[in-house]
Amino acid sequence: MEEANHDPAQCDALGYCGDVGCWVALDWTSDTTATLNGVPVRVVYSGFSEVQTTDDEIIVLKPRYFFDSYRELFANTESPRSIVELGVFEGGSALILAEMFPHARIEAVDLRAANPAVLRHITRMGFADRLRIHYGVSQADEAALTELVERRLDSRVDLVVDDASHEYELTRRSLEILLPFVRPGGIYAIEDWGWAHWPAPTFDHWAGTALSSLILELVMATATRPKLFGRLVVNGSFAYLVRGADAVERPFRLVDHVKIAPRQWAPVRL
Asked: What digits encode the pLDDT tens for the residues 85-95?
C-alpha cells in the first residue's frame, strides 16, 4: 500500500509525516478497521473464542486509541528500541507495534498455541528479524522472561505492554520480574486494569483480587519511592508508569517499596 506524495524526509523520528499523512503501511479507515501492509485489520470486542487471524485478515483486541496513546508517549522522545508485550491474542497488536516503531526489537509472550497465520504475516511483512512471539509462555514465567530480555534485548527495555491475563497476581508478578529491566524514563503499561469497575457486566463472574488493587499499590509506591517509580498516569482504560532514575535491584518485590501503616490497606476483592 502506498500513499500519494509520501516523502520519507518529512517524517519525524517515529516515522510520522506531517501534512502527507501517517504510516504508509498502516492506514486506519475507522476506529475498528485498518489495513496493515495491504492486509485488512479488524478490532474485536467480543466473540474472542470465535475470531482468528488468517492470511486474509488480522485480528486486534485493543482499540485504535491505545496505539495512538503509545505513539503520543514517545512523540517527544527517542523511539523505543526494545519492547516487551505480554499477551498478543491473535497477534494484531504485535504486528502493529512492529510497524509503528520500525527501530524496535519486540519480544512477546502468550499462553496460547501458535497461530501459523500470524507467523506468516511476521515473515511476509519483514519483521522476522526483530519481532518474536513466544507461544506457550506465561506472563509470570520468571526464567523465560528474564532470558528473553537479557539475551535478546540486552537487559534494557523501553516499553512493556501488559495485555495478558488482567489478573492481579499474575500482572503483579510480571511487573516484579520486568520492572528492573525498564530503563529510567521507560514506560510500563498495564491495559484494561479497570475491568472490575466498568459498568458493563462482562467481567462480573470474575472473582478474587481486582487488578485495580495493583494500580492503587503503584499509586502508593510513587509516594514511598518517587525516584524509583517516577510518574503514574491512569485513565479508565490503561495505566502507565514512567520509571524514575533510581536503580531497581533484583529480586524485586513491590511490597518492599510501599510504606503502609498497619491495617490501613485492603485490596479490592470480588
From this structure: 999 999 999 99
